[in-house]
Every structure is written in structure tokens, then in C-alpha cells.
Amino acid sequence: MAKGYWVAFADVNDPEGYKAYIAENAKAFRKYGGRFLTRGGKSEAPEGKPRSRAVVIEFPNYTAALECYHSPEYAAAMALRQGKSVMDLAIVEGYAGPQPTDS
User: Fold this and answer.
1) Does residue 66 contact residue 91 with C-beta atoms inside 8 Å?
2) pTM across the whole model
């Protein structure tokens, strides 16, 4: 089964207040098997206009990624994020098909 991913771009306008969101979202991510692959580190935007932070979270499968977003645990975290950041988020299913290096 393909993994699921959250792909997010965020601008944080209240870094101190955002810390409460980070602490709270950990509960949902733990429950649904979320694991950070990127979390706002160095990035470059050669195309388009992404926000200042890029975050990718991997889940065991697409269903878990959706369930996490719609969970009461994540709803509590989102409430803490309001007014502290702006986020664009896509929840996507992983790809297990042929790759350019495959024969």
C-alpha cells in the first residue's frame, strides 16, 4: 500500500505562539504514524512562490494521512495555529510506479 503525505507551505507570523501548535500537533502525528521528512529547513524556490517554510510529513498510508487531518486531535492543534500562520496544504498518495532509473 502506498504511503500518504502532507505537503505544506507555511508562513509563520507569530513564532512564539506557533510553539503551542507544534506541541499539540505532535499528538495527532503520533497517533496516525506521521513522520517529518522535511520541517522548514533550507530550501530554494526555483519556480513559483511557495511560502517561507516547506514541510513534508509521511504517513503509513493515504487513509492515515486523511484521518489525521480530520481527527479531533488535529482540530485542537489547528485551533492553536489560527492567527499565527498561513498554510497551503495538500494531502497526497505516494507513488510506487516506474521511475526514470527503472529499465
Assistant:
1) yes
2) 0.91
